Structure formats: C-alpha cells, structure tokens
Structure to design on (362 residues):
C-alpha cells in the first residue's frame, strides 16, 4: 500500500488545506467532472474540510449515469433474445431501464454475463460460434481504445457473431454545454485524469480560452484532488485562464497517440443523447461505416426504441452542477440503491450513490 498511502498522507493534506485557506478571498464554484473524483471527495470528507468560500459541484463524468434510458431498454431487448450472450461491465447491470434492468433479465433466464474487458467478449464469440455475443460499450474516451480494439480484431478475425451496443460519450462537448448554459455557475474545472491519459489535454485549451476559465487535470486520490483544487483556486484568484496538469505522473499534453489513432480508425464523432441532459451535438462516438456490421443496435433491430425518463429524477440537473443529490425530493425515499429511479444512485461513480453511502443527506 506504500504507493497508495503517499497520496493519502494527512500531513500533506493539511498543508494543502492551509494553502487553499490562505489563498481564497471570495466565493468560487468548481466542478469535478469525474464521478470517481466525486466519490473520493465525499468519502474522504474533503467537501467538509474546504473553506466555505469554495463550492464543489458534480459533473456529468459518470459514463453509466449519462447512458440514455433508451439505450438501457435496447440492451434489455437484445439480452432477452434467444441465442444471445449479452456481456457488460458490472456497473451497468443494475441501472434501471423503463421497466426492469439487466440483472433481472439474467434472473429470468437471459444469458447476461459480467466481464472485465471487451476482449473477454471477443473470446466468448470465438468460443460460442452458435451464439451472438454482444458487448455493451459504455464509457468516456477512457474505455474507447479497448472497445475499438475489440471491434477491429473482430473484423480481422471475420467474426460474424460479435457486435457492440455503442454508448460512448466525450468530455469536451459536455463541458461546453455546461459553460454555454445561461444557468451555469461553474468557474473552474477539475478535469478527469484518466480521460486525459488517453486524449491528452490539448482539447481543453480552446475551451479554457473561449470561456475564460482555469482547467486543472487532476488525479483521483485525496492529495491529487486537494492539489487540483489549490491550483484551481490560485488561478481563479490571480485571474489566470488555461490548462494546468496536476496529474503529470500519468498525463501528457498529447496523450496516447496510438490509442487515439485506433479510435479514429474504428469510431466517428457523432451527436449523442445524454441521460437527464438531452442531446449534445458531436458529443459521442459511433462506428464508422466500414465497421457498421458490428453495430448491435442495427443487427438486432432495436435502434428505434425510445423511452421517457422519470419526471421525478433530477439526475440531469445534478450532473450539470445545478443541484446536489440531497436537493432531490426522492433522494433516500423513493430513490435508494435498492430501488433506484436513476443511474446515479446505483453507479459506482454516481453522485447520488456517494451522497447516500457516505451520509450526505443535506
């Protein structure tokens, strides 16, 4: 645990907190984009240790949470079909669709399997040539290289029984949607370090310049986040805009060029609907025409399924930084991890799940 503990050192944390307190002179609102960062902030109590001038709001960086309801319903429709092995990461299994979820489909006899890599789904397709194997390809740019590799390999191998249900979303267009909203209160961003490890942070530079904000690429441990907040507050107080990199041990400005090239070969940028938020232009990935044969939505005829979201759930407002989970009238009553109304209550990166688990009732 030595290499983890060095990013959780209490003495260093106190030094950073004192630095933040000495620096801040007026109110600032900072958004952490990633749901993993949200959980660290709440679990470690950083949100309660910061001076009252700093307000943390939670962004749309939980890929499970922003997967549209209709895509969950499409996944369920595919998983119910005979001869299908439906594969997914575990955090998607309890996300509610309109009527049910994938875990209940499994309980009812559907062949739904939790896997740890899209390449595991590829192995299943080779092992079971008499079955259609589908992988639920959910995520931000972080998971896109692995999913692109699975599709690319499937084409090289000539596998006709493998496909993906693609629900990839992109961070920069979501940031722009938040910043361009008349209701926006965000003055600085903590950018998600794992996304930037793939894409670099050059994409954020024009956003920072256009909206006159600081963006700090930040890791996921308590000291990472405290340092990221300190760097953001310093930039805000000094009136500086631009991008800084707190997470230099994992992130470079250019990112992983090989991964980017593979993603560009398999995926194309397209419009994407975000659960609770709505459509954001050019904010997702879809398969390029030369890989369209691996599109599960088209293969199984479910692309036309649409769904209406719960009128009670305010997940969209939470993920835009407009409200906190405890502002929702259903939080902890109508909406619990056992009976969720929305994905943020059951996802391992969901803000509502963090508030519920760590006792942030208001």
């Amino acid at each position: 645990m030595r290499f983890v503990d060095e990013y959780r050192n209490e003495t260093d944390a106190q030094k950073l907190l004192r630095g933040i307190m000495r620096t801040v002179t007026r109110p600032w609102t900072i958004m952490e984009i990633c749901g993993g960062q949200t959980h660290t902030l709440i679990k470690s109590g950083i949100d309660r240790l910061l001076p009252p001038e700093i307000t943390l709001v939670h962004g749309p960086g939980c890929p499970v949470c922003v997967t549209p309801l209709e895509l969950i319903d499409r996944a369920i429709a595919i998983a119910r079909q005979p001869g299908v092995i439906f594969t997914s990461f575990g955090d998607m299994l309890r996300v509610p669709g309109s009527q049910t979820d994938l875990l209940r489909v499994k309980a009812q006899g559907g062949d739904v399997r939790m896997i740890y890599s899209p390449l595991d789904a590829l192995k299943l397709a080779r092992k079971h040539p008499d079955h259609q194997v589908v992988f639920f390809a959910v995520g931000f740019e972080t998971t896109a290289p692995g999913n692109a590799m699975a599709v690319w390999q499937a084409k090289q191998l000539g596998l006709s029984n493998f496909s993906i249900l693609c629900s990839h979303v992109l961070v920069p267009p979501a940031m722009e949607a938040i910043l361009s909203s008349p209701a926006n209160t965000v003055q600085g961003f903590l950018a998600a370090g794992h996304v930037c490890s793939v894409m670099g942070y050059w994409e954020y530079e024009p956003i920072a310049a256009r909206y006159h904000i600081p963006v700090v690429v930040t890791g996921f441990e308590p000291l990472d986040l405290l340092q990221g907040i300190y760097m953001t507050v310093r930039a805000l107080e000094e009136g500086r805009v631009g991008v800084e990199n707190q997470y230099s041990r994992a992130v470079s400005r250019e990112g992983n060029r090989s991964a980017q090239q593979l993603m560009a070969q398999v995926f194309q940028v397209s419009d994407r609907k975000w659960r609770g938020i709505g459509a954001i232009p050019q904010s997702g990935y879809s398969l390029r025409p030369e890989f369209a044969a691996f599109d599960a939505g088209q293969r199984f005829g479910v692309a036309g399924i649409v769904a209406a979201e719960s009128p009670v759930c305010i997940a969209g407002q939470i993920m835009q930084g407009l409200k906190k989970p405890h502002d929702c009238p259903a939080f902890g009553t109508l909406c619990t991890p056992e009976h969720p109304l929305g994905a943020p209550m059951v996802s391992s990166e969901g803000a509502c799940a963090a508030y519920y688990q760590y006792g942030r009732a208001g």
Observations:
- The domain at 65-170+256-299 is CATH 3.40.50.11740 (Rossmann fold).
- The radius of gyration is 21 Å.
